[in-house]
Amino acid sequence: MMSPERPITRSSRTEHFTSSTTDTQRATMVDIKCTADFCLIPMGTESPSVSRYIAEIQILMRESGLKYSMHSAGTTVEGPWDQVMDVIGKAHEHMHKLGVQRVQTDVRIGTRVDKQQSFEDKVTAVEKILNEKDQEDAARA
Amino acid sequence: MMSPERPITRSSRTEHFTSSTTDTQRATMVDIKCTADFCLIPMGTESPSVSRYIAEIQILMRESGLKYSMHSAGTTVEGPWDQVMDVIGKAHEHMHKLGVQRVQTDVRIGTRVDKQQSFEDKVTAVEKILNEKDQEDAARA
Amino acid sequence: MMSPERPITRSSRTEHFTSSTTDTQRATMVDIKCTADFCLIPMGTESPSVSRYIAEIQILMRESGLKYSMHSAGTTVEGPWDQVMDVIGKAHEHMHKLGVQRVQTDVRIGTRVDKQQSFEDKVTAVEKILNEKDQEDAARA
Amino acid sequence: MMSPERPITRSSRTEHFTSSTTDTQRATMVDIKCTADFCLIPMGTESPSVSRYIAEIQILMRESGLKYSMHSAGTTVEGPWDQVMDVIGKAHEHMHKLGVQRVQTDVRIGTRVDKQQSFEDKVTAVEKILNEKDQEDAARA
Predict the structure, then answer these.
(1) Is the ipTM of this complex over 0.85?
(2) Is the pTM of this model over 0.90?
(3) Average pLDDT per run of 10 along chain B, which is 141 residues long?
(4) In chain A, fewer beta carbons within 10 Å around the N or the C end?
């Protein structure tokens, strides 16, 4: 772990962005898996109800081949960084194609290198702890 | 504008994801400009102070060639979707290289097709309205 | 609906904040129901794994009496604005009591006046549309 | 610091939520200062341009007496938890009064007990590190 008190020398950074990335070609790619939870909001729509748009996005998710799960406040998706960001970008593009003039999305993105953990594993880990607590409480009563 | 009451036929969707995207090669790209405001959080660090990490990210931003601006709650960056998502992904990768085992980022991403607007233009537009209001109030008094 | 092109006169605003709110007493309250989805991150913890902390928050949620649901990227809770913000604030306070020195939370908050809709209803509405689409596609094949 | 490996006994939690909170009266309050950065989105508006609404929110901020700063991706505000959440809630209420039927806000909320730090201090801390790095690099060249 880098000590926050010690300055980081430039040499550890300069290997980034040495290739010339252009608009039409991607020279380097991000090589990391991530979990992203996104909540997309079409703006300037006639109606405040947007479930029809959200359904469209679910179809994009299904077609992407990535592992995903919809909940009431967003959609969680996991996979390689580039593919995950692509599918969210394609969701924006698709909204515009449907006539939405402005789209705003909030995304929570997580990456970790200490262990592999699928997004369902996180819920299971918390539920396991809660069950243990409940049993302790019951034993104490 | 799509009417939210009318069903959308499948034909408007099937052009997506027809190419076979793989982990190592990107067949299709998102062709849209965006503004992203991100707040990156290194997790499991020794200290709750993370300014040294945020400084590292600013250097990545500088090297990216993209237009960006740091504020107290995040960094705003604008450019082509892929490049913007790349630089955020590279920020995650860089944190891991520095020894951070888990990184969580919140991103607000906006795209719009009704007009071109740089992120500073948004602040200017609001300030213009506020100034007009103040002058109206002064004239009324 | 306010026309975005017409200036809003000051009279529509001045009724706000006329009472003197102090740190210890709340004179006015927000009188609106909301749905909030929050993702709380303890910072500066020894380990990048935080499921034990998240379990603590679930216990707070349970004790709050509010309707809530945990998913892999956060916890969704609905109720009166003040109570919802209180329980999230109490989660921050509880983390600090457990020794966490810094806490960062991302919250997505929604309010609407066009209809009452519980957070599960949103998922049901999208799934209904998806099922209809699938049936249409099947009928067309 | 709580060890993440050691179970937390129930006694450390049960002091919460012992008072009976009701919809109309708040028995307990959150006693903590916070910094919140929020991005409010009016939904179902006629136009995708919302600067007129954002200007309205800036006037609420000004009248709140809290320290705040607008940037292109949101507004940062700091103060006691309850007051900060109140002003965001009042922003939602005000939008509805103006005819907006649905409002969605993303908020990043931070609290810390290790030190007092104003939101501008965070930017200053990062800039100080960047300047030191630049001087080191110049000295090395």
Answers:
(1) no
(2) no
(3) 40 34 55 97 94 97 97 97 98 97 98 93 95 92 80
(4) C
